[in-house]
Design brief:
Length: about 450
């Protein structure tokens, strides 16, 4: 068996480990991959955006399955190209990737299908967007419609801030083309939760739930990042909750895509806001979350290669379920100096060995220079701790992160606080997340 993983982050490292576990004898390639993945895969120096070179490589090597990690190549049509060339690929085609690549498209689809989400309007014209702001309650959220590396949503406490955000995007060119069209939406109060499905074009099968921490600083302060940590499973993970999310959120999207003759095949990620009116969609992504993958996949006991192969061959997932390991995982992301506004590279990384039953370090922004592991990006490492309890997983993750050293490193020591320190939640939030093993104070 010959497998190819496209991408180079912590998510792709976690996918590589998962495929290695499911196919111990396979030849696994990663393009371009990262140094941490070289235990599980051989690295191929082709960038994730070079679709022609990737398709040529997959054809030459007779790749049996290509798994696409990041959104950009999916939005650029890598899966369409592979399918046209008869190459088995796991990931949605360009039409499906619009769920992430065009917030305007995703919002329209949700409105048409009655999927619960924030009230919104889409604008191509700044004056009309500014008018809309004048007629709506604060706070408001202004979003670039296109891909903006997770940084295109601005939560605005006041109308004045919303006006500034609109002017920066639509007139000032912040986010470039991605911000030429904006979505202005209602601010939803609640607690966020990430849910993931494996979709075969018709059915959506849930994986574990996770909660990620997007702000750079402890106490959820500071700028938005790609994600500074996550844990899984997150409550409420009760089967009836996931069934409600599947039926009211994932299924209507799959139905709409298949009626449009663009069946959605791949991972479907819904970022939810748990509100007092039930779960509502913050955003869809056409891929797994990062860092959430670094806790969700290691805890998933089921073989994932088999459903991915089925989906890549256009077969049904009927009868497949993702069984989860007992226990918890929590990942702490270690970032380089300046992240998220910038990043720092070339700093040597000192890392002791860890017991793989307790701690697994996923690489993201790393490189090998002169035989040494060095930093090479904003998010450098994801340090995942495992435990029978969330407390144990958190302790292992944080202790391990404290023992890894590189100049300028920073990480959050409060990942998982929603369940580890529920006293920090206000009573309304506490009611929204069913926290097992904790009696609300
Ligand atoms: P997005 O890029 O759409 O995922 O938004 C990034 C972050 O902004 C989300 O994870 C939320 O924390 C916040 N956010 C986005 N939209 C809303 C909304 N309508 N109400 C409240 N928070 C939001
Ligand atoms: N952790 C958020 C994302 O992957 O978009």
């Amino acid at each position: 068996m010959n497998l190819l993983i496209i991408g180079s982050g912590g998510r792709e490292h976690a996918i590589a480990d998962c495929l290695r576990r499911d196919a111990p004898a396979a030849a696994i390639h990663a393009a371009p991959g990262n140094p941490g993945m070289s235990d599980a895969a051989s690295l191929v120096p082709i960038q994730a955006g070079d679709i022609d070179a990737l398709a040529d490589f997959a054809a030459e090597q007779r790749i049996d399955l290509t798994v696409v990690g990041p959104e950009a190549p999916l939005a650029a049509g890598i899966a369409d190209r592979f399918r046209a060339d008869g190459l088995p690929v796991f990931g949605p085609d360009r039409a499906g990737a619009r769920l992430e690549a065009s917030k305007a498209f995703a919002k329209r689809l949700m409105r048409e299908r009655g999927v619960p989400t924030a009230d919104h309007e889409t604008f191509d014209d700044a004056a009309a967007a500014l008018d809309y702001v004048d007629g709506h309650e604060e706070p408001l959220v202004v979003k670039a419609s296109g891909l903006a590396a997770g940084k295109g949503a601005i939560v605005c406490e006041s109308r004045a801030q919303a006006r500034t955000a609109i002017e920066e995007m639509m007139i000032g060119g912040r986010f470039g083309e991605a911000g030429a069209r904006v979505v202005v939406e209602e601010f939803m109060r609640g607690v966020e939760l990430s849910v993931f499905f494996v979709a075969d074009g018709e059915l959506a099968v849930p994986l574990l739930t996770s909660r990620d921490y997007k702000r750079v600083g402890e106490g959820d302060r500071g700028l938005n990042t790609g994600g500074m940590g996550a844990y899984a499973p997150a409550s409420p993970a009760a089967p009836d909750f996931m069934e409600q999310v599947r039926a009211t959120i994932a299924q209507p999207v799959l139905d709409a895509m298949s009626e449009a003759e663009a069946p959605y095949r791949g991972f479907l990620y819904a970022g939810l806001m748990l509100t007092d009116e039930g779960p509502r969609v913050v955003e869809f992504n056409c891929r797994m979350g990062d860092p959430e993958t670094q806790v969700v996949l290691p805890l998933t006991r089921s073989n994932l290669l088999e459903p991915m192969l089925r989906v890549a061959h256009g077969e049904s997932l009927r009868g497949w379920r993702a069984a989860a390991e007992e226990g918890f995982a929590l990942v702490t992301v270690m970032a380089s100096a300046g992240y998220p506004e910038g990043s720092d590279s070339g700093r040597p990384i000192d890392m002791p060995p860890f017991d793989p039953e307790e701690v697994k370090v996923f690489h993201a922004g790393t490189a090998v220079r002169d035989g040494r592991l060095v930093t090479a990006g904003g998010r450098v490492l994801g340090v995942t701790g495992f435990g029978d309890t969330l407390e144990a997983a958190a302790r292992r993750s944080r202790e391990a992160a404290g023992r890894i050293r590189f100049r300028g490193s920073h990480f959050r020591s409060d990942i998982g606080w929603h369940e580890l320190e529920p006293a920090r939640l206000d009573p309304a939030e506490r009611a929204l997340i069913a926290v097992p093993g904790h009696t609300p104070p």
